[in-house]
Amino acid sequence: MSKTVYGQTTGLSPSQLRALERLYRRRVPPDYLVTHELCRELAHLSKELNRQIGLLLNRRGEVEYVILGDYHRIVIPELERPRKAPGRLLGLRCLHTHLSHPGLDQDDLLDLAFLRLDTMTALEVQPEGLPGRLYTAYLLPRKEGNGYYGFLEPLFPWELRGDFRDLVESLEEELERQRPLKEVSDREDRALLVGVYEGPRFLAEDRLAELRELARTAGVAVVGEVLQRRSSPDPRYVVGKGKLSEIIIQAMQTSANLLIFDRELSPSQVRALTEITDLRVIDRTQLILDIFAQRARSREGKIQVEMAQLRYMLPRLRAKDDAFSRLTGGIGGRGPGETKLEVDRRRIRERMARLERELKAISSQRALRRKRRRRQGLPVVALIGYTNAGKTTLLNTLSREEFLAEDKLFATLDPATRRVRLPDGQVVLFTDTVGFIRDLPADLKRAFRATLEELYEADLLLHLVDASHPSYEEHLEAVESLLEEMDLLRTPRLLVFNKIDRLSPEEVLALRNRFRAEAISAINPETLPPLLSRIASFLDSQRPA
């Protein structure tokens, strides 16, 4: 076993250093938190050095780490042993002295959470160098009230009972019983959703509800949610350290193996969060990309998704080990080749260039098809709207076909065009497009330009809005904002509220009057004639005299 004393040991006499190293020889019976003799030795040494001393002990009672701090705190070094699986404690307990104050402080509780220690104990050192009371905290298997921590009654070392092993075993048994929903397989992702907001809480809760739907669409089981209000996100961890400790504890309590943040994370933030939580960390952008990758069916859709993923991945590549180091030598330090990181980046750029060429070819084919349609003189109506507004369901009802339509976000990615006969007899092409979403990742907007080229050729944009959604106004504004960004506001638009079967007649009437819009239920063909008549009237008015 290593005899290293961790911390700042410069300035110690050889005898003081040997006294610290001798702590590695101490043994504590497995049933006891600590012994009276070890507490006396720690208190005496700590008083002599006027610095905090910490020990990390395993469950056999052996000392694995001896740490020397300053007067106010100790810094636990990076632990060499691998972390336990989610939902398990680390198997180490920390005992350290306090010279300036009794009890546990915030740093102690953060270390307890971040490292998933069995217990954290602070030993009060009295002015004469004798041990005072022991203050011990542990992680609760489930949240009780507003707390994530349990505390043992403060005791003098000679008052301790031999029940430490029973405490740890009962904690782990309870954690095992608290494993998430039985219907969630161990092979499935179990995610905690994390949101940081500045404005009203109800808007943040709405965004988190949308993130929950995105996770459900991606096939992820959501086992918990965390919201924090901050004036600005923490540059390293996004959330504050206190909230981060709650996330770690909640992840342990629910056996979560994934954190999903409702904002785009920088590569450095992903690395920092992954290292401190020992969990996989993704952001909203990556979640949307994963959904698109799962649902793309056509060659075009797959190319667009892959391009978006490569654009997202490129700035997030980083060197991880010595294999990535540059092979330098010779005059001017010119080495024999590229680093592995540079090779990876070059390959990604080459792949993106090939995909770009393929996408241009597909765009050309689409342009030819559009040209043929224009020669036939068929007007085009493009269905647009927020994701899950019911565009594909409406196309199915109008064309009497069965395109995939689900109550999920982004159920449809690949565009589909079908002929529909209006009440006045004229034939119109209805085109379904990918759904919009607020804060749509820029990579996806660029990648899907070939699909959205259909919108520039449309004679009319049919903007569908889910009238039953509590945030329908935010959805409407998000789509309008994206249309403005795409320079599509000059194209005529007709606003249509869908899913009116979920509203009262008074609510439907109020929406129609307020927005001067049509109101339909896409699953009920009887509600469609007024909309089709209005489309026919508009197209007639656009015909040249």
Distance between the termini: 94 Å
Number of strands: 17
Name the average pLDDT. Answer: 82
**Number of spatially distinct domains:** 3
- Give the % helix: 25-40%
Biggest sheet, spatial arrangement of strands: 1-3-2-4-5-6-7
Structural class: alpha/beta
Instruction: Count up the helices.
Output: 16
Would you mind describing this structure in some detail?
Strands 1-3-2-4-5-6-7 form a seven-stranded mixed sheet, sandwiched between helices. It has a six-stranded mixed sheet with strand order 13-14-12-15-16-17, sandwiched between helices. It is of the alpha/beta class. Helix 3 (106-115) runs parallel beside helix 6, helix 5 (201-217) runs parallel beside helix 8 (284-295) and helix 10 (340-376) runs parallel beside helix 13. Helix content is 39%, strand content 19%. Mean pLDDT is 82; it is low at 319-337. The chain is elongated, with a radius of gyration of 31 Å. The chain is built from 16 helices and 17 strands. It has three domains: 5-177, no CATH class; 190-290, Rossmann fold (3-Layer(aba) Sandwich), CATH 3.40.50.11060; 374-542, P-loop containing nucleotide triphosphate hydrolases (Rossmann fold, 3-Layer(aba) Sandwich). The N and C termini lie far apart (94 Å). This is GTPase HflX. InterPro entries: G_HFLX_dom, GTP-bd, GTP-bd_M, GTPase_HflX, GTPase_HflX_N, GTPase_HflX_N_sf, P-loop_NTPase.
Task: Please give a quick description of this structure.
It is built from 16 helices and 17 strands. With 545 residues, it is an alpha/beta fold.
Layout of strands and helices, then pairs:
Elements: E1 5-7, H1 14-21, H2 36-49, E2 53-58, E3 63-68, E4 92-98, H3 106-115, E5 120-125, E6 131-144, E7 147-151, H4 164-177, E8 190-197, H5 201-217, E9 221-229, H6 241-254, E10 258-261, H7 267-277, E11 280-283, H8 284-295, H9 299-313, H10 340-376, E12 380-385, H11 391-399, E13 416-421, E14 427-432, H12 442-447, H13 449-456, E15 460-466, H14 472-485, E16 493-498, H15 505-515, E17 518-519, H16 529-542
Parallel strand pairs: 1-3, 4-5, 8-9, 8-10, 10-11, 12-14, 12-15, 15-16, 16-17
Antiparallel strand pairs: 2-3, 2-4, 5-6, 6-7, 13-14
Helix pairs in contact: 3-6, 5-8, 8-9, 9-10, 10-13
